[in-house]
Amino acid sequence: MTSSEQYKREIMKDLAQGNVESLDDVTTDSSTQYENFDDFAQRTTTDQRRQLFSRSLHPEKIPPSQMEPELQQAIAQIKPNERDDVARAFFKNLKERGLDERHLEQQLGLSTHHASRMSADDVSKLASFVYHNHPDIFREVLAEQPGIIKFLSNPVVAGIIGIAAAKWLGRHK
């Protein structure tokens, strides 16, 4: 069994059994139970989401063959203005690391380095690059721009947000 299959089984088993111990400090307080993703995104702060994703995002456990199609699908479904915001946030954080937008445009084969003109495919390439090479930046952008997450459908990929998933589902028993 590959590590990603094992990871998937662990996450799904924990969620199915309501095992919140392995999901860190998930509480049963009704103020932390959310009806759906939008409720979660609106009622949590960037700092709360940052903490959740820092504990649950493990790029080494999800192979590119599973993550890249998920990112592509998710980014294609978010609103164009949200996609622009995601691209801008990635570029801003990468620039702070000394990575130039024009260089990234060439390196990743993007159609442009202007966030507002990027296609969903361009943003997907950028997101995949950041996910695999700068997971801390990926987590930061997810915390700031959580819209991508609600369109992730693969259970293994959704496992990166296992803690948040338990809260979104409200752990109905």
What is the gist of this entry?
This protein is mainly alpha-helical. It is about 60% helix and about 0% strand.
Query: What is the molecular shape?
Result: globular
How much helical structure, as a percent, in the residues?
55-70%
- How many domains? 1
Percent of sequence in beta strands: under 5%
Helix-strand makeup class: mainly alpha
Could you characterize what this model shows?
- With 173 residues, the chain is mostly helical.
- The protein has one domain.
- The protein is built from ten helices and no strands.
- It has helices spanning 3-16, 37-43, 46-56, 64-77, 80-96, 101-108, 120-133, 135-144, 155-158, 162-168.
- Helix 3 (46-56) runs antiparallel to helix 8, helix 5 (80-96) runs parallel beside helix 7 and helix 5 (80-96) packs across helix 8 (135-144).
- The model is unreliable at 19-30 (pLDDT under 50).
Outline the secondary-structure elements:
Blueprint: H1 3-16, H2 37-43, H3 46-56, H4 64-77, H5 80-96, H6 101-108, H7 120-133, H8 135-144, H9 155-158, H10 162-168
Helix pairs in contact: 3-8, 4-7, 5-7, 5-8, 7-8
Brief descriptors of the model:
about 170 residues; mainly alpha
